[in-house]
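Narrative summary of target 7.
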Amino acid sequence: MTNPSVPAHADSSMDAALAVSFIDVEAAARRSQNQVHRTPVITSTTVDRMTQSQVFFKCENFQRTGSFKFRGAMNALVQLSPEQRRRGVLTYSSGNHAQAIALAGQLLSIPTIIVMPEDAPAVKLAATREYGAEVILYNRQIQTREELGEKLARDRGLTLIPPYDHPHVIAGQGTVVKELIEEVGDLDALLVCCGGGGLLSGCAIAAKALIPSCQVIGVEPRRADDATRSFHSRTLQTVHNPNTVADGARTPSLGKYTFPLVLHYVNDMVTVSEAAILRTMFFLWERLKIVVEPTGAVAASALLEGIISIPNARIGVIISGGNVNLKQVGKLLVKVNKPSKLQPKVPWARELS
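Modeled conformation, tokenized:
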């Protein structure tokens, strides 16, 4: 268990590298307020009793396109020049950012081209195409999306909007916590899932600006722990195609913008097992009556599995998305119900999968 109390700020020499501030988050909120949904906050007496805390779930699974990604996508696209809008934009994504860029482009009449892996969830591929985007598939075993995306953007004269490492995207994601704090007031801690760090960076910026004492904790799948290793070593670490059920966290590393922001604003980073993610996802389905995808359950997993324990605290938890492929639920149930390989007395919080 961890009970974080000491901020892990970067040294002052890194301040110059911080590309996003709370001013940018506030501007993003004003800029996209007519397009972005103000998502609900859900509480549960069962969860409060289990954690001995007061927990507030910010439900971005109710955001347009089913995840927080629409916030950053809209904030980025709305700031493009007329010429950039005419030429169009390109991004690469396993699904949620793809859908967000596609819908934002549709609403703003901007052509969108999306590079997606061949094994992306079918529900996310279908939705991206339905929003009017041109989808280009690639094999993640033999290509990297970054190289392919950058080449296509150069060849076609498109503006590249990456899924997390972009100042306008980061600022847009920070509006999640700005809304949360405006609705529920002070928080002692904030739990945010982490892939490439766009959501975590933006949320941490907003939390520290509005509640400096709030402890911001990033949560990552144990099989995709590059950001956690980077945070604790203060050296950028990478991971190649991690085999995690949380497909939104299969990013290779933090980025040139998100890494310094995470070091500066985040207090701690922890990881959760595959089984813990799935247990939490199904718990949220059953008890909160909301559809959450595996990545969307990552932050909640750290709290509900006892990895983070802060009794008598007010805790915000970001539910990042709800784009689960319902046809795969049977397979996920099999995974979560597999017998543990560990001794039966080992607590869930320490379970390895």
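The first strand starts at residue 41 and ends at 42.
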